[in-house]
Specification:
335 residues, mainly alpha, Multidrug-efflux Transporter Regulator, Chain: A, Domain 2, two-stranded antiparallel sheet, 19 helices, MerR family DNA-binding transcriptional regulator, MerR-type_HTH_dom
Length: 335
C-alpha cells in the first residue's frame, strides 16, 4: 500500500508518516519499481499501535521504547502519566473555576477583569494582611463572586481575616448560605466550624433555616454555634441545645446570655424556665452543673424560676445553695 493510501486509511498524514520513518518508528517494508514507499499489513498495524500509545500521552521516544525494547516495563511510565494527567486536570479545573468566577462578576470591560483577577489572587495570598484587604475590597471596590468568598472563608486559618471574610459574605445577599451549607458536611471539623460561624453572621431567612437544621448536626460545636445564633434571633428551637450547653459547660456563659435574650419574650420565658427546671429535676447532675443552672435562672422571669431557685437554696452543696440564695436576693431587689 502506498503512502497516500495509508494516510487516508489510518488518519495519519503523509508528512507525519515520513516523520515516523525519520525517527525509526516505522519503515515501509519495500519500494515500488518507481521508488515509492510501500507499506505492508504489518507496517500498518505498527502505525495503529503508535497512534494508540500516543493517545495515552506517551512521547514518540517512549512509543519507540514500548514497541522495540523487549525489557520495557510500562508500569512506571504509566504511573508517571497518571500523575501528569492529574496535575493537568487540577490546573485546568482551577483555571475553569477562575474563569467562571470572573464571568459571574459580569465585568463591563478588561479593566474590571484585571481588577477581579487581582482580587482573586489576593484572596489566595500567603500574606494574611493581603487576604484581609482583599476581603474588605470584595464589598467596597470590586464585586467578587460569592463562590470565591465561600471558598476563602472555609479555608481561612487567621481569625482576623476570617472575620473580614464573614463580614463580606454577610453583605452578598441570598447565595451565601446555600454554598456554606456544603461546608457543614465537611469531614474536617475546622471547616464545619467556619461554615456555621459564617452562616450565623448572615441575617436572612435562608441562613436561619440552615441554623435550625444545624441544631440536629452530629458535631456539638456546630450545634452550639447554631443555638447561640438562633437565640440571638429569638428562635425558641434553640432552647434545649442552649440548656445542654450550660449543663455540659460548653460556652455556658454565652448560652445563658442567649436564654436571657429569649426570655425577654414573655411567651418564651415560661418555656425556658420549665426546661431548666426539668434538667434540675432529673437528679443526675453534679454540683457544678446545678450551680451553672442556678446562675442561668437569674434572668428568667416567672414563678417557676422563683420556686426552682428556692429549692436550690436548700441544695446539699453549699456553693449551689449560696448561688441560688444570692440570685433570689437579686430578683427580690429588682421586684
Amino acid at each position: 500500500m502506498l503512502i497516500g493510501d495509508v494516510a487516508r486509511r489510518s488518519g495519519v498524514s503523509a508528512r507525519m508518516l515520513r516523520h515516523y520513518e525519520s525517527l525509526g518508528l516505522v519503515r515501509p517494508t519495500g519500494r515500488t519499481d518507481s521508488g515509492y514507499r510501500e507499506y505492508s499489513g504489518e507496517d500498518i498495524r505498527r502505525i495503529f499501535h503508535i497512534e494508540s500509545l500516543r493517545s495515552l500521552g506517551l512521547s514518540l521516544r517512549d512509543v519507540g521504547r514500548a514497541l522495540d525494547d523487549p525489557g520495557f516495563a510500562p508500569a512506571e511510565l504509566v504511573d508517571g502519566l497518571i500523575r501528569q494527567t492529574r496535575d493537568r486536570i487540577a490546573a485546568e479545573t482551577e483555571l475553569l473555576t477562575r474563569l467562571r468566577r470572573i464571568g459571574a462578576a459580569e465585568p463591563a470591560g478588561w479593566a474590571d477583569v484585571l481588577q477581579i483577577v487581582t482580587l482573586l489572587q489576593a484572596l489566595g495570598s500567603k500574606s494574611a494582611g493581603a487576604r484581609q484587604r482583599a476581603a474588605l475590597s470584595a464589598v467596597e471596590d470590586v464585586p467578587v463572586p460569592v463562590e470565591a468568598l465561600v471558598e476563602a472563608v472555609l479555608s481561612e486559618p487567621d481569625p482576623h481575616v476570617a472575620g473580614a471574610l464573614r463580614w463580606a459574605l454577610a453583605q452578598t445577599g441570598e447565595d451565601g448560605p446555600a454554598l456554606l451549607a456544603e461546608g457543614l458536611g465537611s469531614p474536617a471539623a475546622e471547616v464545619r466550624k467556619r461554615a456555621v460561624r459564617s452562616i450565623a453572621e448572615i441575617p436572612n431567612a435562608a441562613a436561619t433555616a440552615l441554623l435550625r437544621d444545624a441544631l440536629a448536626h452530629p458535631d456539638i460545636v456546630v450545634r452550639g454555634y447554631a443555638a447561640l445564633a438562633l437565640g440571638a434571633r429569638g428562635v425558641a428551637d434553640a432552647v434545649p441545645t442552649l440548656i445542654d450547653m450550660i449543663v455540659e459547660e460548653r460556652n455556658d456563659a454565652d448560652a445563658a446570655d442567649a436564654l436571657s435574650t429569649l426570655a425577654s419574650d414573655p411567651a418564651l420565658a415560661d418555656q425556658i424556665a420549665t426546661g431548666l427546671v426539668d434538667r434540675l429535676a432529673r437528679g443526675t447532675l453534679g454540683a457544678p452543673a446545678r450551680r451553672r443552672l442556678a446562675q442561668a435562672l437569674a434572668d428568667i422571669p416567672g414563678l417557676t424560676t422563683s420556686r426552682a431557685l428556692a429549692d436550690l437554696s436548700l441544695d446539699e452543696d453549699r456553693a449551689v445553695a449560696l448561688t441560688a440564695a444570692y440570685v433570689l436576693t437579686l430578683r427580690d431587689a429588682r421586684q
